[in-house]
Amino acid sequence: GNVRQSVPFFMVTSMEGSLRFYLDGLGFKKLVEWTPHGRVEWCWLVHGGAAIMLQEYRSGMRPEAKLGVGCSVCFMCEDALAVYRETKAKGLHTEKQPFVGNNLWVVHFKDPDGYDIYFESPTDAPEESVLEL
User: Fold this and answer.
1) Cα gap 102→34, rounded to integer Å
2) Nearest Cα to 123, choosing from 107, 108, 93, 102?
3) For the purposes of burial, counting CB atoms within 10 Å of the CB of 68, is it exposed (0-12), middle (13-18) or buried (19 or more)?
4) How many whole angstroms separate alpha carbon 81 and alpha carbon 103?
5) Which of 40, 61, 96, 115 is buried most deeply by CB count within 10 Å?
6) How confident is the model at residue 36 (pLDDT cuts 50, 70, 90)?
7) How far apart are CA 82 and CA 121, in angstroms?
8) CB 34 within 8 A of CB 41
9) DSSP secondary structure, 96-125, as one string
10) What's the whole-model pTM score?
11) Which residues contact 33 (CB under 8 A, 6 or more apart)?
12) pLDDT tens digit string along 44-93?
């Protein structure tokens, strides 16, 4: 069909902090960037077949409302627990221990602006199981 991909687009308060989280922490790669004033103001990041776009608020443009409320992004994986192990080794912390919900392992992060980011993969482990450390 005509539609090929859905790409979440997050407005962020610090591009530098967001890039540390997504690139260094979660392992995304920067595919495209826009640098109209000598620094990244917008970018397209990829991780496998998934993508996300980030744009930094310009001065005085950030809304008063809390960012990310009511919206989350689920990245479907072959093995979400591998993402958990890789990110933990880099010092990135999840919101809670990985758990099973809806027949999926769920690994939950909050990005620096409070957006909910999930990595999930199918499992036959019992519902509400929690990863043993």
Assistant:
1) 38
2) 102
3) middle
4) 14
5) 115
6) very high
7) 10
8) yes
9) S--EEETTEEEEEEE-TT--EEEEEEE--S
10) 0.91
11) 40, 42, 43, 44
12) 999 999 999 999 998 878 788 888 888 899 999 999 999 999 999 999 99
Give me 103's structure tokens: 């027949």
Tokens of 47: 């991780």
**Are the beta carbons of 97 and 133 closer than 8 angstroms?**
yes
Q: Report the C-alpha gap between 61 and 24 in whole angstroms.
A: 27
Tokens representing residue 109 in the block: 């992060």
User: Mind giving me the DSSP string for the chain?
Assistant: --------EEEES-HHHHHIIIIIIT--EEEEEE-TTSS-SEEEEEETTEEEEEEEPPTT---SSPTTTT-EEEEE-S-HHHHHHHHHHTT---SS--EEETTEEEEEEE-TT--EEEEEEE--SPTT-B---
Q: Which residue has the tokens 């909910």?
A: 116
What lies within 8 Å, CB to CB, of 22 at 6+ separation is 28, 45, 52, 54, 111
**First-to-final CA distance of the chain:** 43
